[in-house]
Design goal:
6 strands, two-stranded antiparallel ribbon, Myeloperoxidase, subunit C, two-stranded antiparallel sheet, mainly alpha, 14 helices
Length: 466
């Protein structure tokens, strides 16, 4: 049953990719592509379970989150300069690797520091990044996004040291973390979920505005006794919405002639990470985030993310060996892996969660499988026609994507998905005694309340690395 659904959720092999000089009906013009990978970065910051795999039996009671469930950038800082000094310079700034070229926007682009698996030769295919979380090297885009946060730390450190040469590392770290948390609340969340739901969870919320000191969130479902945790409904379903936003191809910069595939047998055409990629692959972040006004179409545009819908691009239907261990074809399908994980975790159906949250359930007519393009050729199949067992029993991950595509012109988390993600994000921030939301709700970035991910990138690029 799940295999049938997974097969229908994965798009057929694209006969011809839509050139970036033409409109692509699968694109969500409200969410730039960079936010797909910012979401992946945030996920790695929250969770790290080295034992979690479909290759072994999932035991809910045995699952351990080896990472603090906080937005604290430990995926960047690791255990800090005392325990992992090989990541830092003597002045508590991050070390970087070789210079990268190709971006006319970032003339000082640098790769992450990497090990040398072949000191006597030139084979650098297994040169792994020396960073706080190895997963942030799993593709070329998130790898360079990791570098942006490291460079932002170095920029903030340089400014704070200039004003106070005796400033401590923990104070620099706090300032960087609070900027990051501000971006999450005031830029990332408003882009990916229904703003009205966010306002329900954050009474009085206004985008790009500080909170008052009497701030108190409205957490109806995400509650804990002693310390905050990450609900399995979030990790195994709601926060996997980003899989549907992944594009099959991306342009890295305007100096390279073409676009690159998320997976390809040719390493010179593949964005798969865990390796030293060509040094001309520096990302021009203007193609991923709304940093400046760009043309709507063409190689210099901001690439949109794909729509949140009940479809994933074809390359995710057959994950290659570098991404997953050798498996039968059906187990290489990312949709199947997500659906099976939800089953093994005994997740409730989407309808059951909607009833629990008193949220209006989707109708059978809304529970369809396929691309939210509106193109008659992109057929949407009723869920119950795939298997009668799905009647009033839609898998939670699928259901959340179906909610998102109800408005195909602006696909984002709504209903169940929006409520789970909003409460978990806000609850984790509120439950972290070190966050700005807990310590100083009316705090605002010194750069002003409009500070967002594009502003963070601009500042990260100000400091030149030696």
């Amino acid at each position: 049953m799940l295999a049938k659904l997974a097969d229908k959720m994965a798009a057929d092999a694209e006969a011809e990719e839509t050139p970036d000089t033409e409109q692509d009906a699968e694109e969500n013009n409200h969410i730039p592509a960079g936010y797909t990978y910012l979401g992946q970065f945030i996920d790695h910051d929250l969770t790290f379970d080295p034992n979690s795999s479909l290759q072994k039996q999932n035991d809910l009671e045995a699952l351990v989150d080896f990472r603090t469930p906080r937005f604290d950038l430990d995926c960047v800082y690791g255990r800090g300069p005392n325990d992992q000094p090989y990541m830092y310079r003597d002045d508590n700034l991050f070390l970087f690797g070789r210079r990268l070229s190709g971006s006319t926007f970032d003339k000082n682009a640098r790769d992450l520091p990497r090990n040398n698996p072949d000191p006597l030769g030139s084979n650098r295919t297994n040169a792994r990044a020396l960073i706080g979380d190895p997963r942030n090297d799993e593709n070329v885009i998130v790898s360079q996004l990791q570098g942006i946060f490291m460079r932002f730390h170095n920029h903030v450190a340089a400014e704070m040291i200039r004003k106070n040469p005796r400033v401590e590392f923990k104070d620099i770290q706090q300032m960087v973390r609070w900027h990051y948390q501000w971006v999450i609340l005031h830029d990332f969340l408003p882009r990916i979920l229904d703003l009205e739901v966010l306002k329900q969870v954050l009474p009085g919320y206004k985008r790009h505005r500080p909170f008052d000191d009497c701030f108190k969130p409205n957490l109806e479902i995400f509650k804990w006794r002693k310390s905050a945790f990450i609900p399995i409904e979030f990790t195994a379903a709601a926060y996997r919405f980003g899989h549907s936003m992944i594009r099959p191809v991306y342009r890295l910069n305007s100096t390279l002639p073409g676009r690159f595939h998320i997976f390809s047998a040719n390493p010179l055409d593949s964005l798969v990470g865990f390796r030293e990629f060509p040094d001309v692959w520096a990302i021009d972040w203007r193609l991923y985030f709304p940093i400046e006004k760009r043309p709507i179409l063409g190689p210099d545009r901001v690439q949109p993310a794909y729509k949140m819908d009940t479809s994933i691009v074809n390359p995710l239907k057959t994950l290659p060996n570098p991404v997953v261990a050798p498996k039968p074809e059906v187990e290489r399908n990312l949709a199947y892996r997500n659906l099976v994980r939800g089953l093994q975790m005994s997740l409730p159906s989407g309808q059951a969660v909607a009833r629990k949250l008193c949220i209006k359930q989707l109708t059978d007519a809304q529970l369809v499988v396929g691309k939210a393009t509106g193109d008659p050729e992109d057929e949407q199949i009723p869920l119950v026609s795939i298997d009668a067992g799905f009647a009033d029993n839609a898998p939670l991950w699928y259901y959340i994507l179906a909610e998102a595509q109800v408005n195909r012109e602006d696909t984002k988390l709504r209903g169940v998905g929006a409520r789970i993600v909003a409460e978990v994000f806000v609850g984790l921030l509120h439950g972290d005694s070190h966050s700005f939301l807990a310590q100083y709700p009316s705090w605002c970035p010194p750069e002003g309340p409009e500070f967002d991910m594009p502003a963070l990138i601009r500042q990260a690029l100000l400091t030149k690395e030696p």
